[in-house]
Amino acid sequence: MSKLSERLLTFNAGLLPDMLQLKYEAMTENPFRFFRGTCHLFFEDLAAALPMPLSPLTWICGDLHIENFGSYLGDNKLVYFDLNDFDESVLAPASFEVARMLSSIYVAFDALKFDEGKSDKMAALFLKTYTERLATGKAVSIEPRTAKGIVCDFLMNAAKSKETDVIKKRTVSKKKKIMLSLEDERHFKVEKGLRKALAAQIQEWIGTSSDGPYNYKVKGVVFRLAGTGSIGVKRYLFLLKSTNTKNKYLLLDMKQARSSSVLPYTEVQQLAWETEADRVLAVQKRMQYVSASLLSTTIFQDESYIIQELQPVKDTLKFKLLKDEYRDLYQVIDDMATLTASAQLRSGGIQGSSIIDDLVAYGKSADWQEPMLAYCKSYAAKVQKDYRQYLRDFKHGVFNPETAKLSTEQPVS
């Protein structure tokens, strides 16, 4: 067994076994999908590399890549384009976030067969816009009135989406009753006892939490599969029905919160969060301009979970559709860089993060930029190599449950 596979098996050991096999299969799709599913490898490798120039401490989402930006409905009922995944969030050097994002550009553009050289231009553009926005010291947001180009079109289309659209996609009608569909490949049946306990948990949350919707009753629950890195964590989808408005339904996502995979590779003192879900929500609220609708936490069977509405407007841009649209591609990367810097500025000076003056100075400094680009481009090449090794090991059954069990029980030579 390769050292790479040992690292993967060790990290993923605590995930749900059946779902973990789906994660391993998903990671065979291409190098970018592999990159998305191995955030822990990225930061382990970063920590082992030559030290990067010092950077200010900031709150980071931790797993920043081109598909962790998207649209969502804010609690003010407006649609925004912003960072949208904070499971790995921690207090860390700003360079951590930038390195992950730049590496994702190199890895993704190659995997999506973009023209040679476009990744260099887009990585340089991201870094240029990011530093320029930091240097202004002013955070901005992107919503339909301020968006440009394809991002504006994306948000305008998202704003037109209706609750009934997502309900129709996720449910079926039987005997005049609406229920969650088990024909959807992302949905899995939940055992009866667990289903009842989950329904009771959410029903109590509705009745007692100030974050919850009023006058709704739980009508169904399924296990939900989503993402790449998070495949294997406990995640459930609930169908709620209004008790005072006819034919009005709501979908809720409840996702297990685990320790950040970035944490072992930063020496920064972290806050003593009450739960992992509290960490995720707190950082998300600091970094996003407006919080998402129905964002909350709960404790179920001694584990913390993040609760949020499954929205019809929540979506990510499909980069493969922008392959030949250079102007659109330019605008999207420019916006992502602006939002990354804005999130760091917005959360500046909060409980250990650097003040705005330090972030401004970092944006104006040039000595770290070329080494950063060089590292990220070389790391993308390493991802390609690791991906090829992963495919070999996968084909040889290394990630088969029985093989993996025997391998982990043997002492590593």
Give the integer mean of the pLDDT values: 92
The residue ranges in which pLDDT falls below 50 over 5 or more consecutive positions are 406-413
Written as H for each helix and E for each strand, in order along the chain, the element string is HHHHEEEEHHHHEEEHEEEHEEHHHH
Oligomer: single chain
Protein structure class: alpha+beta
Order of neighbouring strands in the sheet with most strands? 7-8-9-10-12-11
Largest sheet, strands/sense/barrel: 6 strands, antiparallel
Question: Helix segment count?
Answer: 14
Task: Give me the secondary-structure topology.
Layout: H1 3-12, H2 17-26, H3 31-36, H4 39-48, E1 57-60, E2 69-73, E3 79-83, E4 90-93, H5 94-111, H6 118-136, H7 149-160, H8 163-170, E5 171-174, E6 177-180, E7 187-188, H9 192-208, E8 216-224, E9 235-242, E10 249-256, H10 276-287, E11 296-300, E12 303-309, H11 326-346, H12 356-364, H13 369-395, H14 401-409
Antiparallel strand pairs: 1-4, 2-3, 5-6, 7-8, 8-9, 9-10, 10-12, 11-12
Helix pairs in contact: 5-6, 5-13, 6-11, 6-12
Pfam families: DUF2252
InterPro entries: DUF2252 (IPR018721)
